[in-house]
Design a protein that fits this description.
The chain is of the alpha+beta class. The chain folds into 2 domains: 75 residues, no CATH class; 39 residues, no CATH class. Helix content is 31%, strand content 18%. The protein is elongated, with a radius of gyration of 26 Å. This is 6692_t:CDS:1.
């Protein structure tokens, strides 16, 4: 296909929509600090104050901001206990305005997106083929310890 010199000059001209000022990120992401790095797979993670988005799903922002701290999350992980939070909100039913109170799990030590083995350290993602193999080995009569050793071995042998 032949392109005329006029069309070629038009294509080579800088497009104002692609200039540097349109490509520049107005709010660069802050550098993560070691004390704010919490496992990304936990939905109840805490985020530093400089970031406006909160990750505690279903918990009001004001409750996360005022009531949840990293020290609480550390103690939650060490003691293996869930931390409940109470929230208050206005609601109406049949045109009657009421103050509603609800309680939810604010912090949880459980990792619901990983399969945790008996050593408490090794994890497998849900859907990993080794989980299905582990279940099949248990069904066949193998002990839990032997089945875990077999699936965590580097080379899979039948």
């Amino acid at each position: 296909m032949l392109i005329s010199s006029n069309a070629r000059a038009h294509l080579n001209r800088k497009n104002p929509c692609r200039s540097q000022r349109y490509r520049r990120d107005p709010m660069p992401a802050p550098e993560p600090s070691p004390e704010t790095e919490i496992r990304a797979d936990n939905e109840n993670s805490l985020i530093p104050e400089s970031i406006p988005d909160q990750a505690a799903k279903g918990v009001q922002k004001v409750v996360v901001k005022k009531n949840l701290t990293h020290d609480m999350y550390d103690s939650c992980l060490q003691l293996q206990k869930e931390h409940m939070v109470t929230m208050h909100r206005l609601g109406s039913k049949d045109h009657v305005i009421r103050l509603l109170r609800s309680s939810k799990i604010g912090l949880s030590p459980l990792d619901t997106k990983r399969w945790i083995l008996s050593d408490g350290i090794t994890t497998l993602a849900f859907g990993d083929w080794r989980i299905r193999a582990y279940k099949n080995l248990i069904k066949s009569g193998m002990t839990h310890e032997d089945a875990e050793k077999r699936i965590t071995h580097k080379v899979w042998t039948l």
